[in-house]
Amino acid sequence: WPSHKSEMPLGQMPVLEYNGTKLPQSLSIARFLAKQFQLAGKDNF
């Protein structure tokens, strides 16, 4: 981990790398995946 920590956005895990872009933080990753796979609702409720 110490050798990879400097490569991570914010220096922490989790990180999802998609098409060369690193997306940090679990909530951001969950929202991104829900939208990618049409699991997010049509509105915010």
Can you put this structure into words, describing what you see?
- By secondary structure, this protein is α+β, with helices and mostly antiparallel strands.
- The chain is built from two helices and two strands.
- It has helices at 2-5, 26-36, and strands spanning 15-18, 21-24.
- The chain has a two-stranded antiparallel ribbon.
- A hairpin with a 2-residue loop joins strand 1 and strand 2 (21-24).
Structural class: alpha+beta
Query: Strands of the biggest beta sheet: in what spatial order?
Result: 1-2
Count of helical regions: 2
Biggest sheet architecture: 2 strands, antiparallel
Which shape, going by the Cα principal axes? Answer: elongated
In N-to-C order, the SSE pattern is HEEH
Characteristics:
45 residues, alpha+beta, Glutaredoxin, two-stranded antiparallel sheet, elongated
In short:
With 45 residues, the protein is an alpha+beta fold. It contains two helices and two strands. A two-stranded antiparallel ribbon has the order 1-2.
Write the layout of secondary structure elements.
Layout: H1 2-5, E1 15-18, E2 21-24, H2 26-36
Antiparallel strand pairs: 1-2
